[in-house]
Amino acid sequence: MGLGKGLAALRNGSDIRGVALEGVPGEEVNLTSEAVRSLTQGFLRWLVARSGKACDQLVVALGRDSRLSGPSIVAIVADELLAHGVTVIDCGIATTPAMFMSCVFDEVSADASVMVTASHLPWNRNGLKFFTADGGVESSDIVEITELAEAGEPELSAVAEKAEAQQFDLIDLYAAHLRSLICEQLGEVDPLAGLSIVVDAGNGAGGFYATKVLAPLGADVSASQFLEPDGHFPNHVPNPENAEAMESITQAVKAAGADLGIIFDTDVDRSSAVDENAREINRNAIVALAATLVAQNHPGTTVVTDSVTSDELTKFLEEDLGLHHLRYRRGYRNVINKMVELNAEGVDCQLAIETSGHAAFLDNYALDDGAYLGTLIVCAAARLKREGRGISELVAGLKEPAESREVRMHITDEDFHAKGAQVLEACEAWVGDAARDAAAEASGGAVAVTVVKPSYEGVRVNFSGAVNGWFLLRMSLHDPILPLNIESSELGGVEAIAATLRTFFATVEGVDSSAL
Fold first, then answer.
1. Which residues of the chain have pLDDT under 70?
2. Strand partners, 166
3. Contact indicator for 33, 74 with CB cutoff of 8 Å
4. What is the Cα–Cα distance from 262 to 291, expressed in whole angstroms?
5. pTM here?
6. Spatial separation of the C-alpha atoms in residues 238 and 226, rounded to whole Å
7. Domain 3-168 has what CATH class?
8. Domain 403-512 has CATH 3.30.310.50
9. Cα–Cα distance between 364 and 361 in angstroms, integer?
């Protein structure tokens, strides 16, 4: 496989991801030293053109999460930048949001930053995220960066003698920033005294939040777990969407009798929570909780979410909180960009959030930052604690679906993009007499089946009558997969909807629907 083809394969939406280490059967290393060096050159060409500065006028900050391949990748990126006269600031282990803030903090004032991370992916993976003061780069920028890397043009000037990278403790600075936010809301003296909080960093980069943010402000973090960075991830996947991870922190909160639990993904751009009753606040519930944090100061604001949120969440946001819910697309850049677009059009939109835990607040640079969301939750929990109440009260009105199921169906056609589009078009056309009759047969009663409009991603279909629920069939952002989400407000409804869909997929070729 040629380098050019390999670089294109490393594109992952608005960042770079690949296999960095051997050790997993069937997976070849494609984020090689050569690839990292070429990508760094492509990024530098892109940055010179974007900033209008020469290489020796640029300051670039580098950081990494706890992955085993992180130090070697950072060393390659630093070496390549230094070879062209760039001032390099090595921030060591950091978080993705902190690396963006390195372009904002006066103490750093970087022109750009690079975070070496692959989020929650397995230990052998790694990647690159790029930032400027305008935020994270877009998918189109990643395409341009890889193309510049492949072309090798324009030529980059080199220096005769390379400088050394400067060392800087960015996490200390970022932790101080978060502490100041808490003190602004709660007061300067021991604002978290009496509050017991369990932090689960999953051996990623988020352990600092317990030791450098919460503990200095008086919180009891003694029951926190997996704070030490360890790229083997020996305890559980560092991912708030992972059932084992959520069960682990839930049990830790229960055992400690804690007031709150906060769990991060590897690079801390996502988080979820556990309430004082040791019940997880995740997926739809973390969206609901984040929305309560903006509702009081921004009545009627719009909340942009991804496409898989429940009807019960819409009811909570619009009827309980008086907000507007825009159910948009999967992908954190998609929801963030929609928030920015709405505000540019004069529509107040303070929050863009995915059920995965990516949450971006407008007043925080429209940045998806798990530690910032965690900080807002901690402040709310502290205020409630002083009144003898718990964080669970904020989302008590959110109803959960009785059943839910997610199925991922593999597209076997080589041109999976074309096939996926064809299946979605056929599915929408099928919603009519054929779907209604199949649903009636599956449920034993009359069912109304309707396509939800507008749908910004895939085909969403509502069922009412003998079956009450919905399904969303969509294309994966990057893989030959058709994810299918089904929810029902009553027991047995998910299976009835699945049975209805089996009659559709029985007519579809090029898709393995056996999981349905």
1. 1-5
2. 89
3. no
4. 17
5. 0.94
6. 10
7. alpha beta
8. yes
9. 5
Ramachandran angles phi, psi of 468, nearest 5°: -125, 115
Amino acid 1: pLDDT: 33
- pLDDT for residue 4: 42
Residue 357 near residue 369 (C-beta atoms within 8 A): no
How many helices (H) and strands (E) the chain has is answered by 15, 23
**Residue 196: closest CA among 175, 216, 223:** 223
Same fold yes or no, 3-168 and 403-512: no
Measured distance between the N- and C-terminal CA atoms of the chain, rounded to whole angstroms: 35
Provide the token pair at 489.
């407000």
Is the CB of residue 102 less than 8 Å from the CB of residue 170?
A: yes
| Single-letter residue type at 383 | R
Mean pLDDT of the chain: 96
Instruction: Give 188: exposed, middle or buried? Use CB within 10 Å, 0-12, 13-18, 19+.
Output: exposed
pLDDT in tens, 366-416: 999 999 999 999 999 999 999 999 999 999 999 999 999 999 999 999 899
The pLDDT of residue 5 is: 56
Q: Does domain 173-395 have CATH number 1.25.40.10?
A: no
